[in-house]
Amino acid sequence: MVPDRMLLTAKMVDAARTLVSKALLTSLDIENSTVTPSSTSQPLSEVLPQNYGSVCFVVRRPGNNNELMKKFKMWGVVKETGVDDEGLSTFYNDYFNYPLYKDEGLVLYNDFFGKRKIGLTTYNPFKLYRGYKDMSKRLNEKGLDGNMTGEGLIQGGLVIFDKEGNVRYAYEEIIGDELVIDDIVAALNDIAKDEK
User: What distance in Å separates the CA atoms of residue 107 and residue 25, rounded to the nearest whole number?
Assistant: First the structure.
């Protein structure tokens, strides 16, 4: 069963109706620490893989289930280039070596995810400090530096498409929380069983 947090909100359902035609994505060529956007943008409908479901990481800031993932193509979207191309290059080369695109109109960020911004989850300074320490420890254990360059307030998430290009599930980023991989795998399994 797919957890509730993976289900689309009413706003996401509305945005998904036009997402494939409205979102314009520019392919990024990343070599060494140089990021070069292609000269033309493509509608999302042309970016989605044919005959495969896909998982799109909507990245806020660049910073194992292999058998299941063979049924899905992964790709990512960023909201800006030219701000920290070295960080974007490191992200691509060291952590996320899948096709990356720039969301020219921020359609995935604004329309689909509702332009959600980082906010306080509590006003209790002790809980804030504890959350910060836990997140810092997790980043250090994974060898991540927590890149602070560029716009980092608008949150992203994960969008899961079926092989027809329909948005089926989404996972909204929660700053400081690790992705709940079991929830994502449940959504992928649900789509995979529907497509047999």
Answer: 10
Reported as a single tens digit per residue, the pLDDT across 128-186 is 788 778 777 766 776 656 555 666 667 788 899 998 899 999 998 877 677 788 898 89
pLDDT, tens digit, 9 for 90 and up, residues 93-140: 887 888 999 999 989 888 888 877 776 677 788 887 887 787 777 667
Q: Per-residue DSSP letters for the chain? A: ---GGGSPPHHHHHHHHHHHHH-EEEEEEEETTEEEEEEEEEEHHHHSPTTSEEEEEE-SS----HHHHTTEEEEEEES-SSSSHHHHHHIIIII--S-EEEETT-IIIIIISTT-B---S-S-HHHHHHHHHHHHHHHHHTT------S---B--EEEEE-TTS-EEEEEE--TTPPP-HHHHHHHHHHHHHHT-
Residue 114's Cα: distance from chain center in Å? 14
